[in-house]
Amino acid sequence: MLILITYDVSTLSSAGQGRLRRVSKICQNYGQRVQNSVFECIVDAAQFAELKIKLNSVIDPTEDSLRFYQLGNNYKNKVEHVGIKQSIDIEGPLIL
Amino acid sequence: MLILITYDVSTLSSAGQGRLRRVSKICQNYGQRVQNSVFECIVDAAQFAELKIKLNSVIDPTEDSLRFYQLGNNYKNKVEHVGIKQSIDIEGPLIL
User: Fold this and answer.
1) Could you tell me which residues are beta bridge partners of residue A6?
2) Which annotated residues bind Mg(2+) (chains A, B) (predicted)?
Protein backbone atom coordinates (compact mmCIF):
# COMPACT_ATOMS: atom_id res chain seq x y z
CA MET A 1 0.00 0.00 0.00
CA LEU A 2 1.01 3.60 -0.47
CA ILE A 3 1.69 5.59 2.67
CA LEU A 4 2.09 9.31 2.46
CA ILE A 5 4.22 10.84 5.18
CA THR A 6 4.21 14.58 5.75
CA TYR A 7 6.72 16.07 8.15
CA ASP A 8 6.76 19.59 9.53
CA VAL A 9 9.87 20.79 11.27
CA SER A 10 11.64 24.11 11.38
CA THR A 11 14.72 23.60 9.23
CA LEU A 12 16.06 26.95 10.38
CA SER A 13 17.88 25.13 13.18
CA SER A 14 20.65 22.65 12.39
CA ALA A 15 19.00 20.13 14.75
CA GLY A 16 15.79 20.42 12.69
CA GLN A 17 17.74 19.98 9.45
CA GLY A 18 19.39 16.89 10.92
CA ARG A 19 16.03 15.39 11.90
CA LEU A 20 14.61 16.07 8.42
CA ARG A 21 17.69 14.41 6.91
CA ARG A 22 17.19 11.33 9.12
CA VAL A 23 13.44 11.18 8.36
CA SER A 24 14.24 11.43 4.65
CA LYS A 25 16.86 8.66 4.88
CA ILE A 26 14.43 6.30 6.64
CA CYS A 27 11.60 7.03 4.19
CA GLN A 28 13.87 6.58 1.18
CA ASN A 29 14.44 2.98 2.24
CA TYR A 30 10.74 2.43 1.61
CA GLY A 31 9.91 4.91 -1.12
CA GLN A 32 10.76 8.37 -2.31
CA ARG A 33 10.70 12.02 -1.43
CA VAL A 34 8.20 13.92 -3.59
CA GLN A 35 8.39 17.33 -1.94
CA ASN A 36 10.65 18.85 0.69
CA SER A 37 8.71 17.36 3.59
CA VAL A 38 6.50 14.83 1.78
CA PHE A 39 7.47 11.20 1.28
CA GLU A 40 5.62 8.40 -0.52
CA CYS A 41 6.42 4.91 0.75
CA ILE A 42 5.27 1.54 -0.59
CA VAL A 43 4.92 -0.80 2.37
CA ASP A 44 2.96 -3.74 3.75
CA ALA A 45 1.35 -3.61 7.20
CA ALA A 46 4.45 -4.96 8.99
CA GLN A 47 6.77 -2.50 7.23
CA PHE A 48 4.38 0.35 7.99
CA ALA A 49 4.49 -0.50 11.72
CA GLU A 50 8.31 -0.72 11.54
CA LEU A 51 8.54 2.59 9.66
CA LYS A 52 6.41 4.35 12.28
CA ILE A 53 8.61 3.04 15.12
CA LYS A 54 11.76 4.23 13.30
CA LEU A 55 10.35 7.68 12.55
CA ASN A 56 8.97 8.15 16.06
CA SER A 57 12.45 7.51 17.44
CA VAL A 58 13.93 10.25 15.24
CA ILE A 59 11.48 13.13 15.52
CA ASP A 60 11.12 15.54 18.40
CA PRO A 61 7.40 15.33 19.31
CA THR A 62 7.57 18.64 21.17
CA GLU A 63 8.74 20.47 18.05
CA ASP A 64 7.83 18.40 15.00
CA SER A 65 4.61 17.28 13.37
CA LEU A 66 4.41 13.97 11.53
CA ARG A 67 1.34 12.73 9.67
CA PHE A 68 0.68 9.39 7.99
CA TYR A 69 -1.96 8.91 5.28
CA GLN A 70 -2.91 5.48 3.98
CA LEU A 71 -3.66 5.59 0.26
CA GLY A 72 -4.24 1.84 -0.08
CA ASN A 73 -3.17 -0.35 -2.99
CA ASN A 74 -5.08 1.34 -5.81
CA TYR A 75 -3.40 4.68 -5.42
CA LYS A 76 -2.31 5.43 -8.97
CA ASN A 77 -5.40 7.43 -9.96
CA LYS A 78 -5.62 9.08 -6.52
CA VAL A 79 -2.49 11.18 -6.94
CA GLU A 80 -2.12 14.27 -9.14
CA HIS A 81 0.82 16.57 -9.60
CA VAL A 82 1.13 20.15 -10.89
CA GLY A 83 4.32 22.19 -11.35
CA ILE A 84 7.95 21.30 -10.88
CA LYS A 85 8.93 17.76 -9.93
CA GLN A 86 12.19 18.52 -8.29
CA SER A 87 12.10 19.74 -4.72
CA ILE A 88 14.82 22.01 -3.40
CA ASP A 89 17.76 19.87 -2.34
CA ILE A 90 17.90 20.78 1.30
CA GLU A 91 20.14 17.80 1.90
CA GLY A 92 22.82 19.25 -0.33
CA PRO A 93 25.80 21.16 1.04
CA LEU A 94 24.82 24.30 2.92
CA ILE A 95 26.74 27.30 1.60
CA LEU A 96 26.91 30.13 4.11
CA MET B 1 -14.30 13.16 0.15
CA LEU B 2 -11.05 14.17 1.78
CA ILE B 3 -8.43 15.72 -0.47
CA LEU B 4 -4.95 16.22 0.79
CA ILE B 5 -3.05 19.05 -0.83
CA THR B 6 0.69 19.37 -0.38
CA TYR B 7 2.43 22.47 -1.63
CA ASP B 8 6.16 23.02 -1.99
CA VAL B 9 7.39 26.54 -2.56
CA SER B 10 10.42 28.41 -1.37
CA THR B 11 9.07 30.79 1.25
CA LEU B 12 12.44 32.53 1.36
CA SER B 13 11.16 34.96 -1.27
CA SER B 14 8.28 37.31 -0.49
CA ALA B 15 6.61 36.23 -3.76
CA GLY B 16 6.73 32.61 -2.55
CA GLN B 17 5.33 33.60 0.84
CA GLY B 18 2.52 35.45 -0.94
CA ARG B 19 1.67 32.39 -3.05
CA LEU B 20 1.64 30.14 0.02
CA ARG B 21 -0.66 32.64 1.74
CA ARG B 22 -3.03 32.62 -1.25
CA VAL B 23 -2.95 28.79 -1.49
CA SER B 24 -3.70 28.60 2.23
CA LYS B 25 -6.61 31.05 1.93
CA ILE B 26 -8.18 29.08 -0.93
CA CYS B 27 -7.75 25.74 0.88
CA GLN B 28 -9.16 27.12 4.12
CA ASN B 29 -12.44 27.80 2.31
CA TYR B 30 -12.72 24.03 1.86
CA GLY B 31 -10.91 22.62 4.88
CA GLN B 32 -7.95 23.29 7.10
CA ARG B 33 -4.22 23.61 7.23
CA VAL B 34 -2.63 20.72 9.13
CA GLN B 35 1.03 21.50 8.53
CA ASN B 36 2.89 24.44 7.01
CA SER B 37 2.36 23.25 3.45
CA VAL B 38 -0.27 20.53 3.94
CA PHE B 39 -3.99 21.17 3.69
CA GLU B 40 -6.93 18.81 4.20
CA CYS B 41 -10.07 19.75 2.29
CA ILE B 42 -13.51 18.15 2.37
CA VAL B 43 -15.02 18.49 -1.09
CA ASP B 44 -17.31 16.83 -3.61
CA ALA B 45 -16.17 16.19 -7.18
CA ALA B 46 -17.37 19.59 -8.46
CA GLN B 47 -15.68 21.47 -5.62
CA PHE B 48 -12.49 19.49 -6.16
CA ALA B 49 -12.43 20.54 -9.84
CA GLU B 50 -13.10 24.16 -8.81
CA LEU B 51 -10.38 24.03 -6.15
CA LYS B 52 -7.81 22.74 -8.65
CA ILE B 53 -8.63 25.54 -11.10
CA LYS B 54 -8.27 28.16 -8.34
CA LEU B 55 -4.97 26.75 -7.07
CA ASN B 56 -3.53 26.36 -10.55
CA SER B 57 -4.19 30.05 -11.18
CA VAL B 58 -2.24 31.03 -8.05
CA ILE B 59 0.87 28.87 -8.14
CA ASP B 60 3.94 29.38 -10.28
CA PRO B 61 4.35 26.02 -12.09
CA THR B 62 7.99 26.81 -12.91
CA GLU B 63 8.86 27.20 -9.22
CA ASP B 64 6.21 25.44 -7.14
CA SER B 65 5.10 21.86 -6.69
CA LEU B 66 1.48 21.04 -5.90
CA ARG B 67 0.18 17.53 -5.23
CA PHE B 68 -3.37 16.30 -4.69
CA TYR B 69 -4.19 13.03 -2.92
CA GLN B 70 -7.72 11.64 -2.85
CA LEU B 71 -8.42 9.94 0.48
CA GLY B 72 -12.06 9.13 -0.31
CA ASN B 73 -15.00 9.30 2.09
CA ASN B 74 -13.84 6.80 4.70
CA TYR B 75 -10.72 8.66 5.61
CA LYS B 76 -10.97 8.82 9.40
CA ASN B 77 -8.94 5.66 10.09
CA LYS B 78 -6.49 6.44 7.27
CA VAL B 79 -4.91 9.44 8.97
CA GLU B 80 -2.51 9.34 11.92
CA HIS B 81 -0.72 12.15 13.66
CA VAL B 82 2.39 12.28 15.89
CA GLY B 83 3.89 15.33 17.61
CA ILE B 84 2.75 18.92 17.82
CA LYS B 85 -0.53 19.97 16.26
CA GLN B 86 0.26 23.59 15.70
CA SER B 87 2.28 24.50 12.65
CA ILE B 88 4.48 27.58 12.65
CA ASP B 89 2.38 30.62 11.80
CA ILE B 90 4.13 31.68 8.64
CA GLU B 91 1.16 33.89 7.86
CA GLY B 92 1.78 36.00 10.91
CA PRO B 93 3.63 39.33 10.73
CA LEU B 94 7.19 38.98 9.50
CA ILE B 95 9.60 40.64 11.93
CA LEU B 96 12.90 41.56 10.28
Assistant:
1) A38, A67
2) 8
Mean pLDDT of A64-89: 87
Q: Do B67 and A82 touch (CB under 8 A)?
A: yes
Please say whether the beta carbons of B7 and B39 come within 8 A: yes
- Reported as a single tens digit per residue, the pLDDT across B30-83 is 999 999 899 999 999 999 999 999 999 999 999 999 999 999 999 989 999 999
pLDDT at A89 over 60: no
CB of B53 within 8 A of CB of A80? no
Give the up-direction half-sphere exposure of residue A17: CA atoms within 13 A in the CB hemisphere. Answer: 9
Interface confidence (ipTM) of the complex: 0.84
pTM above 0.90, yes or no: no
DSSP string of B1-56? -EEEEEEE--TTSHHHHHHHHHHHHHHHTTEEEEETTEEEEE--HHHHHHHHHHHH
How far is B58 from A8, CA to CA, in rounded Å? 23
Residue B8 marked ligand-binding? yes
- Shortest distance between the Cα of B61 and any Cα of chain A, in A, equals 4
Cα–Cα distance measured from residue A57 to residue A24, given in angstroms and rounded to the nearest whole number: 13
